[in-house]
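Input sequence (118 aa), recorded before submission:
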Amino acid sequence: MVEKANSAWRYETFGLNTFGQRSLIIPGKLSDSLSPDAMFLFCRLQRDHLWCDEFLMSKNYGKAFGMGWRRLANAVKELVVAGVLRRLTHGGRFEGDAAMYAWIKKRPDIYHLQEGKR
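Predicted structure, token format:
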């Protein structure tokens, strides 16, 4: 019991205790395969939209953190290819028409490979 309390206190003193706070989760396979822009966007989207199944993202979304529309588009494309996001609508039909995205909760191809099925 004392060991667990000491361990918890160590986390608290180093500022690593996330109990009661929101934390970001980065799967290891993603961290190895994404560009820095895509990884930053993934973290930012988790922070802003993790609890939403679907969310809007305009081409100006990246302006707040210094990412232009081209870098944002490339990062979004990487996340779609990696199987993190799915684009539901394209947007851009008129001023203010933002694209809609959804989180991909499970990737069946990965789960089948893990189970030895194909």
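Checked by second reader. The chain is about 45% helix and 10% strand.
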